Amino acid sequence: MVVTRPSRSSMPRGLLNHPLTLYLIFLVLMLLKLMWLHHNLHAYNITMGLLDKVIAIGSLLLLSFWTWLLPRRGMIVSLAALNLLLTALIYADMVYYRYFQDFLTIPVLLQARQVDALGDSIATLIYTSDLWFFADWLVVIPFAAIVLFSRSYRSKHSSTSVTGYGGYSYNDRKARLRRRLTAGSIALVLGMGLAVGPIYFYSKTWAKGLFDNNWWNVSMYNVTGLLAFHGYDLYNYAKDHIGSGPQAEPADVEQAKAFFAERQGTAPQDALFGKYKDSNVIIVQGEAFMNFMIGQSIGGQEITPHFNELMKESQYYSHFYHQTGQGRTSDADFGANISLHPLPVGSAFVRYADHTYDSLPSILKDNGYSTNVFHAYESGFWNRYTMYQNMKYDKFYSKNDFAQDDPLGWSLSDESFFRQSVEQMSSEVTEPFYSFLITLSSHHPYALPKEKQQLDVGEFQGTMFGDYLQSVHYVDSALGKMVEDLKNRGLWENTIFMFYGDHDNSIKEQSQYEQFLGRSLNELDMAQIMNEVPLLVHLPDGADAGTIDEPSGQLDITPSVLHLLGVSDQSYYHMGNDVYDGSARTVVLRNGAFSDGSVFYIPSDDYIYENGACYDLSTRDKTDINACRPGHDEAAKRLHVSDTVITYDLIQRFREEDSGAATSQ
User: Which of 166, 377, 542, 587 has the most neighbouring CB atoms within 10 Å?
Assistant: First the structure.
């Protein structure tokens, strides 16, 4: 057969259909989208340099090398499908990051109901300019459809007498298969070298310990890039859930044992220990209720007047930190009621709901308390129904247990929620009781109906920041009515009442906080604003009221409640501080930040200690980074111990070992 060279007029069209050209277009498009994502992250101290682009290209090669093994039509359709899937993943990561400042993981995806239920919140995170992210689909989708369904295209490119370039004939099926295998093998080997090589180099130099410690996801992304990050996440999930499951390293188990052995001493004997024995306990977890607006006014109107009034006869913790991670509201619940750090990835409520914990409701139940939790939403959200059974609550009052007489936002207005919850406590619950309540009305995106808006937010009108202030003002009003209701029903005088915020409001713009507070803010100011939530503790006799400036956090709630009730915390596996025992305390945040009252350490996004910032709290200026080194090392140890205990169900293991030792004696 005579082989002819393509004419000049047919060369451009032929090149466009050439597998290599199409493959390169795919790589370029996906690299541009990964660069677009990185540009939109605005992550501090993280760049996308040349090596990072090399890792991205290598990752794309590893994800797509197999398309070379397919016939031309199959390759084109597969590349188009990969484009659609990867575009969807990258964009989902971008939207998720705008809200959570984090990336999607397998545990988060398995908690899809949590993402679905964000509803209007997600809608506010999607920008019109994002349409450009999908512009290539206008060409990719029609082209793939033509390839897949057009008879003329199929007949043109499936002939057994197709002539190739450079004088090579494609009649020989074996020759074509060899070429496809060769091309696929080259893509695979090249991908391994480009992706794994730089990551390995990073992990042995400035990112040493990357795969040994629980790095924050954004920091992992800084080393691996987005696609390799997801690959490693998938590997970790498979490792933890296939076969007999993961086994803890002996050294990690011994470290955990030593940590808790050091904490378990003699029970405190101060005046507050057991002073309120057998008192009822009511704890309210306020949705996105932050600390910066406590005591503040706008337009001459107090934002939280009822909270401010209650402060006069309560303990107010002015530097109380939320310690949440990806699990947000569920993490706050977990930290407050179980006193272990939330996980670096996903929610412990979903991932390890069947593990053993020393929860506050289970401890109080063992001490004769009726234990109940109230939340006017779906019982399966965040896997609460299963988790609350494990935590030994007597009853979970969820959405179906409330009359929907005042719908608002996600479910029921906080005013109605508080009223119905107090009614149920008064009529259905036996004393002493522990009641844990989770609010909803101040949830992102803070769209409060006009008839419930009672605050003039002035210059913030029409902004999400203004909407947030409105919703907080409404929740404060509902809180005031709840306290009055408790007093009228005779429950207030014998109740330890606590109110704390669960996490930040996801509004990150520094300029808005500066405008609201009327002053410029530095990095420390913003770190505290975004991580501090209020804690208010009202004791039955109103004793020990005042402002406490020492740092505290959500993990401290359970040990402190047990102190007031006279229940020793020494035999339980808790990591929080007892705020009443008089000892110095360090509060550790999930991302590795910490405060001990003297310094505040802010980690960098690349997770390199030296790139972080150490602030002297007395001057509020940066100080020598080494001043934070001891606290940083302690924080890292605590997070590692907590993750080890949760992941490998060590509390159950320790209990069995203790029981076995006692039996043998």
Answer: 587
According to DSSP, the β-strands at 407-408 and 411-412 are antiparallel
Three-state SS across 382-444? HHHHHHHHHCCCCEEECHHHCCCCCEECCEECHHHHHHHHHHHHHHHCCCCEEEEEECCCCCC
Q: Are 30 and 173 in contact (CB under 8 A)?
A: no
Q: What is the mean pLDDT of residues 316-331?
A: 95
Nearest Cα to Cα of residue 277 among 565, 632, 1, 42: 565
Which residue, chain included where needed, has tokens 């009052």?
A: 397
DSSP 447: -
Query: What does the alpha-carbon distance between residue 600 and residue 614 come to, in Å, rounded to a whole number?
Result: 6
pLDDT in tens, 72-126: 889 999 999 999 999 999 999 999 888 767 788 887 776 656 566 566 677 788 8
Query: What residues contact 217, with CB distance under 8 A and at least 6 apart?
Result: 102, 103, 105, 229, 326, 344, 345
Say what percent of the chain tops pLDDT 90: 68
DSSP E strand boundaries for 278-351 = 280-286, 297-298, 301-302, 315-317, 320-321
Residue 580: phi and psi, rounded to 5, are -100, 0
Q: Where do the H-state alpha helices sit in 250-354?
A: 250-263, 305-311, 329-338, 348-351
C-alpha–C-alpha distance, residues 333 and 665, integer Å? 38
Is 230:89 a contact under the CB 8 Å cutoff? yes
Predicted confidence band of residue 149 (pLDDT cuts 50, 70, 90):
confident
Task: Among 10-14, 459-463, 471-475, name the one with the lowest average pLDDT.
Answer: 10-14
Cα–Cα distance, 13 to 169 (Å, whole number): 19
CA 120 to chain CA centroid, nearest Å: 19
Q: 185 Cβ partners below 8 Å, 6+ apart?
A: 65
Tell me how far apart the alpha carbons of residues 327 and 305 are, in angstroms, rounded to a whole number: 30
Q: Are 61 and 195 in contact (CB under 8 A)?
A: yes
The string of DSSP letters for 103-118 reads ---HHHHHTHHHHHTT
Q: Specify the range with the lowest mean pLDDT, choosing from 210-219, 225-234, 258-267, 406-415.
A: 210-219
CA dist., res. 314 & res. 575, Å (int): 25
Least confident of 150-164, 394-408, 629-643: 150-164
**Which is it for strands 395-397 and 370-374: parallel, antiparallel or unpaired?**
parallel
What single letter denotes the amino acid at residue 587? V
Amino acid at 542: G
What's the average model confidence in pLDDT over 279-287? 98
**pLDDT score of 243 more than 90:** no
Chain centre to alpha carbon of residue 139: 36
Cα 267 to Cα 586: distance, rounded to the nearest angstrom:
20
Mean pLDDT, residues 636-658:
94
For tokens 């540009």, name the residue: 39
Q: Indicate the SS3 state at residue 621.
A: strand
| Confidence at residue 111, expressed as pLDDT on a 0 to 100 scale | 60
Tell me the C-alpha distance between 13 and 11, whole Å.
Answer: 6
The structure tokens listed for 660 are: 């076995």
Q: Give the tokens for residue 170.
A: 């494609």
